Amino acid sequence: AENRYRQNHPNSQNLHEKAIGILPGGNTRSVLHTDPFPIYMDRGEGNRLIDVDGHEYLDLVGEMTAGVCGHSNPIIRDAIISTTTKTGLNLGATTAAEASFAEKIRNRFPSMERMRFCNSGTEANLYALSLARQATGLNKVIVFNGGYHGGVLMFLHGVAENTVDKNDWVVGTYNDEEGVQRLISDNKGIAAAVLVEGMQGAGGCIPGSVKFLHSIQKATKENGMIFIMDEVMTSRLAPGGLQSTIIDPQGNAPLKPDITTLGKYIAGGMTIGVFGGRKELLSLYDPRPFSESNVQKQPAQMSHSGTFNNNTLAMHVGLVALSAVYTPEVCTKLNALGDWFRQELLDRCRGTRMTVTGVGAVCNIHFGGSHEDGLEILRIEDLNARRSIDDSVLGDIFWFRAVQKGFWIARRGMLALTMGTTRAELQGFLDFVEDI
Ligand code: PMP
């Protein structure tokens, strides 16, 4: 399969050989590297990608969930054009669009009573953490094995990778329903916050259990910690984000994190990060001293700068994307299609050494486990157990064959559906899996 790959992609190979002379490994985004060389894409149209050797693919990566609106949505394109022609780029001043966009977000995610914009999901999480540290006067943060919160906030192998200070973290076990309460109470007065994904995305699309996530919410409240839910990836899984679907069986209420972080698709494909939550917390950024709504009744304790925080493209296109493109109806429909697709995929994995986990239109094929192991993963979530069964050779063979058949999937087996993708297109992928 690898030989055929080399033969079919000479232009990609040439471009890679040139790039390695200027970019380390020819690459500026680690996740996109593939041996022997990555495929270079030329362009995207809707849910299709065309590479530099002229091959066309059904895009099942969907820009790792950020590309849910597709590559050439006409409403998004018009919003980009009208912003650049009527408004101009980044005015270096406050504009009306930022409050309108924020209001649109709050309508969907009511726990975000006040919010601020930045430029990436990584940045949103970094700001959320500084806010929690300032509000509590504490330093450490509880995160979970398999968690991914950005390029400098990675815990995929159970330890802090690329983070600024390795001593800042307490790394717990994801979905450890029993242990998490103790973990939080043991760190009372030490940890400022718990930072968690409702479904671990880069960690393999492992859904968090209702009990685990509600235990975090309850225990953080009881122990003076801030509950930060990273919805950078998961907010696309329901109109109100994953938090709106995780209902406490006793109180009958959805999750209400103190702070939520967003990014990826939320500005229709423009660069974006958002952090928001309880208004008392966000008031630490209120620049008006002694104002009514400044609950702290003192000058802003924190400054939040950033040249592109309110850039006109992200603000305008984001508003349009949430109002007219990735609407609640479109979101619900796409995730229902994703639930159907994942179940069909799981059925085809029966009796093989593959399994599938995920929520709605975002899922991950795991290689080397079995169907039963997959169901077990949902219960015990232990990343190390999953790694111990991980068969990267099987994963590689699957990836090479998928690409050859015109299906663009992430090398690690992740799939994120783009709006407009049809059941017939997905059926094509299911048939491929059946044949393989
Ligand atoms: N949090 C989660 C859950 C993510 O999946 C990602 C991106 N994969 C990030 C944060 C970081 O976002 P960005 O790449 O925009 O910095």
Automatic annotation (TrEMBL):
Keywords: Pyridoxal phosphate, Transferase. It holds the Pfam family Aminotran_3. Its cofactor is pyridoxal 5'-phosphate. GO terms for molecular function: pyridoxal phosphate binding; transaminase activity. SUPFAM superfamilies: PLP-dependent transferases. The keyword Signal does not apply. Belongs to the class-III pyridoxal-phosphate-dependent aminotransferase family. This is Pyridoxal phosphate-dependent transferase. It comes from Penicillium cinerascens.
